[in-house]
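Hello again, I could really use a second opinion on something today. I've been staring at a protein lately and its backbone has me curious. Please have a think about how the structure follows from the sequence. I owe you a coffee for this, so here goes:
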Amino acid sequence: MPCSVPAPRRLPEPFPEDAAGTLVRTTLADYPGRLAAAVFLRGCNLRCPYCYNRALVLPDGGGEGFVGAGDILSHLAKRRNVLSALVISGGEPLLNPLTPQLIRAVRSLGYKIKLDTNGTLPRLLEQFCASAELRPDYVAMDIKTAPQRYAELVPRPGGSVQPPSQFPAAAGTAVPPDGAALAAALRESAALLAREYEPDCREWRTVLVPGLVGERDIEAAAALLPCDAQWYFSPFRGGGCLDPAFDALPPYSDSDMQRLVAAARRTIPSARLR
């Protein structure tokens, strides 16, 4: 007989049931060693010019293809004997008030949780890691460029893309535009993950964006990480970027990417292209 599937928990307001984010119903690429689903939640405190998730990042980014929290939980309840994990990404999921409730509900269905974060919110990350209910089983942290350059990725009032406003409750945790404070936040998040997780339960990720990630940037970023870090690099691909100027940006050649990964390996031996 088929196993009994508990009804998904209903999530309370203020979450828009029809616009929580986007759902990848099945993925082999996002949680190492597990067949998973992945949800990309709305809201972010950075404005990376090469980001292709405009609808998630900008408050007025539109909601085409968005699903509600109830749809996410219903899918996971139905697929329990096939899937074993949920990846919660964004945007920046630590800013979205849906994230903790989603973790509780999904964990009650027996799923493992992977959290993707940009590393700029160490206080929130620490709260999740310290909670038995909310602690992710696996964490991936982005390294977007050298720590001292992160101020280039922060939204500016009056700019073409505005700071996030859709989650007022998280306003006190918004990342400051000060470069030194951002670098300190990244160091704190990286140290937290190195301390709290075994090497096979944490990773760092970098997109090789020309002009934003060069050899010196990689050397500076490598100093943040433990020597046993899993550090994965991926090629930049233009198209639908937050800053349209990046759509036509030529990616690095294969030889240039290999050179940059070799620079990372001087400090982090396991660094590799993915």
The first strand starts at residue 21 and ends at 27.
